[in-house]
From TrEMBL:
Name of the molecule in the record: Nucleoside diphosphate kinase
Name of the top EC class for this enzyme: transferase
Chief subcellular location: cytoplasm
Entries under PROSITE patterns matching the protein: NDPK_LIKE (PS51374)
Cofactor(s) listed: Mg(2+)
Pfam family, one: NDK
InterPro entries associated with the record: NDK-like_dom (IPR034907), NDK-like_dom_sf (IPR036850), Nucleoside_diP_kinase (IPR001564)
Record keywords, A-Z: ATP-binding, Cytoplasm, Kinase, Magnesium, Metal-binding, Nucleotide metabolism, Nucleotide-binding, Phosphoprotein, Transferase
Role of this protein: Major role in the synthesis of nucleoside triphosphates other than ATP. The ATP gamma phosphate is transferred to the NDP beta phosphate via a ping-pong mechanism, using a phosphorylated active-site intermediate.
All residue ranges annotated as the Nucleoside diphosphate kinase-like domain in the record: 3-138
Top-level lineage group: Bacteria
Gene Ontology terms, MF aspect: ATP binding; metal ion binding; nucleoside diphosphate kinase activity
A single GO BP: UTP biosynthetic process
Upper classification of the organism: Bacteria, Bacillati, Actinomycetota, Actinomycetes, Micrococcales
Amino acid sequence: MSVERTLVLVKPDGVSRGLTGTILSRVEAKGYTIAELKRVHATRELLEEHYAEHVGKPFYEPLVEFMLSGPIVAAVFEGERVIEGFRSVAGTTDPTTAAPGTIRGDFGRDWGLKVQQNLVHGSDSTESAEREIGIWFA
Ligand code: IDP
């Protein structure tokens, strides 16, 4: 199995709640390596590219507003099977039901909003990882 890369975002809720270090350290502690790291304010154009598959869905506009609401920490993590490994550490999309022991399960919940504020993003395939890394680390 060759070394993979994945894009990890600590979303604005994770940054504003002071969970950036905790989140990144969980991923490092599992054994993955930080290859790139920066704090960034997204733009609407960047998010439209990043979330191209969700344009037009009911949660798209609230998702963009949420991702514009504060700084994001973007990272590239490296390691064998890091794409599925990170998604396993992150937990399932809905933080209310994400398993305890995962980032979303331990630190997230429903806040009664139109978008799931679920702390992190991780790429879902090698193709999307390379595409997303190109968007955030152009
Ligand atoms: P993922 O982040 O777990 O891969 P995606 O389906 O790619 O999930 O959705 C992107 C993001 O959009 C989610 O992380 C979440 O913040 C938000 N989202 C997805 N589905 C819903 C929904 O049904 N309602 C509200 N927000 C959603």
